[in-house]
Amino acid sequence: MLPEDTAEETLGADQQAAIMGNGLTFNGLTFNGLTFNGLTFNGLTFNGLAMAELSDPLGRQLLSAIVSCALPEGEAIDLNIEGVDYSFEGSVGLAPEWGKDGGECGENCKSWVSACVISRVNYLGQSVRISVRGKDKALASTSEEREEYTEREGAYFGDIFATPQELYACVAPGASQIPRVCGPSIQGCSPIEVLGDCDDVCSKELNDGASDKCRDPSGKMQKGAVTVFLAS
Description:
Layout: H1 4-19, E1 24-27, H2 51-54, H3 57-70, E2 76-81, E3 84-89, H4 107-119, E4 128-133, H5 143-148, E5 151-159, E6 166-171, H6 179-182, E7 193-197, H7 198-201, E8 202-205, E9 211-215, E10 221-222, E11 226-230
Parallel strand pairs: 6-7
Antiparallel strand pairs: 1-4, 2-3, 4-11, 5-6, 5-11, 8-9, 9-10
């Protein structure tokens, strides 16, 4: 039998993988788990990986989210951490090249995976279903999904691999809060910085309502931008 926390993580990964085919996913990351303390990634071999980071359940939760966002369904990373075997499963497939032999996570990979992971933050750490959309083909949505998930929340982008991490969001036009991510006020949303209205921050709106290419505080346009829609 797996240890209790291992069983919970495996169940979460299986549940996540089962519903990602049409762009729907569960979220549940909290701010406290959104850090690897400067951990560097070199391909999927994780050269230089400080295994102490993964002895913490929050570290494993973040790695699970990263792998789920990066690799497609059916692929996984298996690690032995302090004598316990863990499987971190792919789901969305935003950076499938990272899982190839010698694969690396380049600028596009970092941008899309970061946006996907940031979009999964939940202020209360609760697991709720969200629709994640963006220009990448891995985020294509069905008509049924768009009919059910009509409440545009905001867009997420940045670089979780940077030191310090760059975590950004913008709110849907006409909205002033994103309670799922920030709680009662965007003023206390640290470490995610809310940059304003998505129509002002991002270049355009795509046909499915997602924001395309959003600008960070330095003025750089981030290609990877994930827009979240909630069920109406």
